[in-house]
Specification:
- Helices cover 0% and strands 52% of the residues.
- It is mainly beta.
- The strands form 2 sheets. Strands 2, 4, 5, 6, 9, 10 and 11 form a 7-stranded mixed β-sheet that branches.
């Protein structure tokens, strides 16, 4: 089992930046991929970004490409999501998730463990 704890959410003005962190414990962190998903009120959960076990390969939703960067520090058992040029439509609860595989994916079913979520609100 993996325990995941997100932090770094908050309120920011449009155009601003936030960095989310997700600390993991349990399974060997470097053995699995990690991802970030988000869910806005009244909407389904959607994929944001994922990174493979090594940090060498990353995947992004089209809506965040060029603005968000996912990275990981295996020595600290932590995955990050740097969010720049934030827009009001980025407002959501952001969840980090541990993948079932070392390479990850872009679909929710490919991730077996989830954090409790952190709220990101972007004011216009």
């Amino acid at each position: 089992q993996v325990q995941l704890v997100e932090s770094g959410g908050g309120l920011v003005q449009a155009g601003g930046s936030l960095r989310l962190s997700c600390a993991a414990s349990g399974r060997t962190f470097s053995s699995y991929a990690m991802g970030w998903f988000r869910q806005a009120p009244g909407k389904e959960r959607e994929f944001v970004a994922s990174v493979d076990w090594s940090g060498s390969n990353t995947y992004y939703a089209d809506s965040v490409k060029g603005r968000f960067t996912i990275s990981r520090d295996n020595a600290k058992n932590t995955v990050y999501l740097q969010m720049n040029s934030l827009k009001p439509e980025d407002t959501a609860v952001y969840y980090c998730a541990a993948a079932r595989s070392s390479w990850g994916g872009t679909e929710g079913y490919e991730f077996g463990q989830w954090g409790q979520g952190t709220q990101v609100t972007v004011a216009s």
